[in-house]
């Protein structure tokens, strides 16, 4: 078992734990929504997706985001998952990313959807 992200206590008051599938999803979320430079000891960690919420919507932006997300996931989680597809939707101030991946440990195919809007 691994710690749940974001960190939180469980019903017993202990650190909440996550199963393998939930932990992988949590790690993907961390890569997607961490801005490079945000982590002190890993300044290149993340892909900076949140910085693009206010960027002009275009097919070029969506294609660039797909490549950025795919390469960041390969770089940081390539030992844990195989990224099969990344889909990016950008509508006004809403950004949604869908990641289809296979866990290297269990060979299970998963689809995870993440979205963030402007604050």
UniProtKB/TrEMBL annotation:
Basic and acidic residues bias spans: 9-20
Region of interest: Disordered: 1-20
Signal peptide range: none
Stretches assigned to the IraD/Gp25-like domain: 20-104
SUPFAM superfamilies: gpW/gp25-like
Residue stretches in coiled coil: none
Protein name per its UniProtKB record: IraD/Gp25-like domain-containing protein
Organism: Parazoarcus communis
């Amino acid at each position: 078992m691994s710690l749940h992200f974001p960190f939180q206590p469980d019903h017993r008051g202990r650190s909440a734990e996550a199963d393998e599938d939930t932990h992988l999803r949590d790690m993907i979320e961390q890569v997607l929504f961490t801005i490079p430079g945000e982590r002190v000891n890993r300044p290149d960690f993340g892909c900076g997706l949140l910085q693009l919420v206010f960027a002009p919507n275009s097919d070029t932006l969506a294609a660039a985001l797909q490549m950025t997300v795919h390469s960041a996931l390969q770089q940081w989680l390539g030992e844990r998952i195989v990224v099969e597809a990344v889909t990016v939707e950008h509508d006004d101030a809403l950004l949604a990313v869908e990641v289809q991946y296979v866990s290297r440990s269990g060979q299970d195919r998963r689809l995870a959807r993440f979205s963030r809007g402007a604050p």
